[in-house]
Amino acid sequence: MTDATSMTDVAPDARTGEAQFGDYFALLKPRVMSLVVFTALVGLIVAPLPVHPFIGFVAILCIAVGAGASGALNMWWDADIDKVMKRTAKRPIPAGKVEPGEALGVGLALSGFSIVLLWLATNALAAGLLAFTIFFYAVVYSMWLKRATPQNIVIGGAAGAFPPMIGWAVATGGVSLESALMFALIFMWTPPHFWALALFVRTDYGDAGVPMLTETHGRRVTRHHILAYTLLLVPVAVGIGFTSIGGPVYLALSVALNARFLWGAWQVWRRDDAQAEADNYATEKWLFRISLSYLFLHFGALLVEAALRAAGWSFF
């Protein structure tokens, strides 16, 4: 680890003025929240039991707020390393717009609000899964795994994989093979997605003392891991097509997407650093870009299958 400033001592004199609403909203990591909301909504809609629209709205709101609470707690804890990394230096705390204690208060308050309201509006399992997700991201990942092991992204990816399972639990009060596979889809996608980014965001993690795989084991090993996890991802993604929430539309799209993703991972694997530097990591950046749409398209296809079933078009 670097001897960076502790969480509670981050630039206390650098406060640029009164914090605005947008500064507090940025604490919630809205771009991450959008994926959480979408996958949770899909989990709720594709579940076999209907949910009253108002209850569904409240549930998705709670999941979104819970995700935002996790983001605020993460920013509070990681303020010392955020100010070192170029891509995070403009976040509200290192930029001096929000004080660490304020971020902690926002995170704790929103966590309690979202969990209790989800419990009252739906059921204990859904609320329990949301509580565990917040705890896992804020404590297990942020406070422990992120700074302790190069497998931080692998294990920590579970936090981002729970939303569709929570949505399913809202509708059914339980878990199933389908919700477990939606969880596994996000879980297995996370490592190649982030490691592709780490390959071309070269110095940030090392400067911050974060043991990202690229820093601890090198880029050659990272390329091996990207290909390995992509190979594990493909059968999970395609396999969903053969469950009660899948169908021919999903299967066709998933096969095409995974063929492209696997080809990209193969291309990244076969390159060395000299080749990557020669074209400014073009292939690695391409793999990262297509990974951004990978989940959205898979979960969007599940929505299409649900709409077809609702219209009476059942193929399986």
Q: What percent strand?
A: under 5%
Structural class: mainly alpha
- Averaged pLDDT: 87
State Rg: 20 Å
CATH class of the largest domain: Mainly Alpha
N-end to C-end Cα span: 53 Å
| CATH architecture name of the largest domain | Orthogonal Bundle
How many strand segments?
0
Transmembrane segments: 32-49, 55-77, 98-120, 126-145, 152-171, 183-205, 226-243, 249-266, 286-308
InterPro entries: Protohaem_IX_farnesylTrfase, UbiA_prenyltransferase, UbiA_prenylTrfase_CS, UbiA_sf
Function: Converts heme B (protoheme IX) to heme O by substitution of the vinyl group on carbon 2 of heme B porphyrin ring with a hydroxyethyl farnesyl side group.
GO cellular component, one term: plasma membrane
